[in-house]
Amino acid sequence: MLRPMAIALVHHPVLDRRGDTVTSAITTLDIHDLARLATSYGLSRYYLVTPVSEQQQLIARIVSHWRQGFGAEYNRDRCHALNLIETVDTLDDALADWRRLAGGDALPVLTGARHQQGLGFRKARGLAKERPLLLVFGTGHGLASQHYTHGWPELAPLRAGGYNHLSVRTAAAIILDRLVGEQRRCSLQVDSDV
Fold it and tell me: Which of 38, 121, 184, 193 places its Cα 20 to 30 Å from the Cα of 84?
């Protein structure tokens, strides 16, 4: 049985197309699609990582609409999915919260298309049976280099042919299906505001 799992979508620091470190903007697709994906695969938490207070306010406003009042009554499934969201300033904050919820041995696993080496899905599933995982996805053109200095494991990039520029939402869906797939399990229960 797989241990509890969470995802983090990092908006800072990430790379732009020139390789410069930037902060990318939150989109409504980031909020809705990955929350629904995480819920579908039995994950316990979805972290949106941005230090920009205006972006955090945008997340709070959108999530609040679907968690309370008309939005919650209109679409209870979306309300349920958005209850997984936790907005944090940094990836370190996400990891600290996840370790508090899932256990101190929770392990971040980085994802991306730039590096050729990494864990295959068989090894990653083995890790997921041993320890709670925090799968880390980067927006823009991927995670900035400082995320790779901690010695955290990295998944091997997805390969489907010569073209290799999937959206982060598409990559996350493929990765979760390959990692969790038919092994869906009960998730760690966390408190919600609803």
Answer: 121
Q: Which of 179, 185, 137, 152 is nearest to 3 (CA)?
A: 185
Retrieve residue 22's tokens.
Answer: 């930037």
Question: 167 in helix, strand or coil?
Answer: coil
Tally the domains of the chain. Answer: 1
Residue 49 C-alpha from the chain's centroid: 9
Residue 10: HSE in the Cβ half-sphere, 13 Å Cα cutoff:
29
Q: Is residue 120 part of a domain?
A: yes
What's the token pair of residue 36?
């629904």
- The answer to the question of residue 191 being in a domain is no
126 belongs to a structural domain: yes
**What tokens were used for 167?**
């959206």
Residue 190 lies in a domain: no
- Residues of the domain holding 98: 5-183
| Residue range 3-52, pLDDT digits in tens | 999 999 999 999 999 999 999 999 999 999 999 999 999 999 999 999 99
CATH of the domain at 88: 3.40.1280.10
Q: Is 99 exposed, middle or buried (0-12, 13-18, 19+ CB in 10 A)?
A: middle
Neighbour-count burial for 149-187, b at 16+ CB within 10 Å, e otherwise = eeeeebbbbeeeeeeeebebbebbbebbeebbeeeeeeb
